[in-house]
Design a protein that fits this description.
The protein has about 170 residues and is mostly beta strands. It contains no helices and 11 strands. It has 2 domains: about 70 residues; about 90 residues, no CATH class.
Amino acid sequence: MEGRGSVVLNGLAESVWVRAEGSGQAFRGMPIQNGGGSFVYEGLIDFNGEFFYALTTRVDQAGIELVFKYIISHQGISASVTGSIGWSADIDYGGGTVSGKVKATITATIGIEIDGDGDVHLSGSVSARGRLTAKIAGKNKELFDESIDASVRSRGFRFRFPLGVGNLDFDLF
C-alpha cells in the first residue's frame, strides 16, 4: 500500500481537518476494507460539535468499476455505491460478423438524517440499468436500454419498472 496524508489544525476556526489517500489494500480486516484499488479518507472535527468523516474507495478490475462512499456526520449517516461492468464480443459466423456490447450500471444510496428536532429520517434508492447494442450488417442497433429503480418514500417503498409496466408501491404506514 502506498499513500499520503495531511493534517491541518486551524486554531482560529477551532477545527482539525485530516485527509489521507492512497492505493493498495487499505483498512484490512475492517468492514470498510477495499479490494486493492484506491481510497480517500477525509475528516473534519469542529470544536463546536460539528464533524464529518468520509471514506471513498474505488476498485477497477477485469472490466468492473465500483466506487463506495461512506459519510458519517453530526447530521447523519450515508452510504453509496456506483459501478458498471461491460463486455463486448465479435462473432464470425461465416457469412459475416456480428458484434455486440453489453453494459450494466448500478447506483445505490442510503441515508439516515437527523433533523433539528432530533427526528430520524430515512432515504435511499437503487437503480440498475442495462444496455445491449449490436452491429448487424454493418449497422449499429440498440436492442435493449432500460432500467429498474427502487426508492424509499415518506410512507414506504416504490419500485419503477421498464417497458411501461409502471410503479409498485409498498406503504409501511
